[in-house]
Amino acid sequence: MNMLARLHSAKSGASGAGGFFKLASIGALGLFCVAASFYAAPGLAGLAGAALALNMLAIAVIDWRFFIIPDELNALAIGLGLLAVGFDDRGEKLTLALDASTRGATMAALFFAFRFAYRHLRGCEGMGLGDVKLAGVAGIWLDWPSLPIAVEIAGLGALGLILSRHVQAGRALDPLTKLPFGAFFAPAVWICWLLARL
Q: Could you count the other beta carbons within 10 Å of the beta carbon of residue 27?
């Protein structure tokens, strides 16, 4: 089943009061993120941040539901990030674009190396390519000091969820528990973008 079919199926299954409440909550969260983006960075920079917020929210919701990050959303985030460089008045545009591209390539390479090493050592996938591409997105949008913070926020959030689930279930921690890392990493990217501008 392709992504479009999965989303249609999820939409069909979201009928009823529970489904409406979930959609309303996601919509309200999206509006809050848009407002916060404009508050932190008025003008075109805020518009870019609002677009990032909605993009990251979409990635988080889809990855949480389907354990997949659509290439289209990662590509859109990369394009928006490079476009946002034009709204940045902190330096020469070409230099800023090259710096952003360097950070993006470095982050993607690091995540790919981790993915390769994990698969080689454990014999199974520990991270999807969507997460690798999302790391590239983070590199384009965030400066160097913010990048480890975003990864740490995502990692702690994911670890906290795993621990709480196992405590509630009363069973030992399973290191092979499947978890949608992008559902934590995507919001962390926008949060760090926001904090850097407050």
A: 11
Residue 127: which of 57, 175, 180 has the closest Cα?
Answer: 180
Are 74 and 81 a contacting pair, CB within 8 Å? no
Q: What does the pLDDT look like over 23-73, one tens digit per residue? A: 999 999 999 999 999 999 999 999 999 999 999 999 999 999 999 999 999
How far apart (Å, rounded) are the C-alpha atoms in residues 35 and 53?
10
Torsion of CA 117, 190, 138, 198, to 10 degrees: -120
Domain ranges of the chain: 21-197
pTM: 0.89
d(CA 68, CA 60): 9
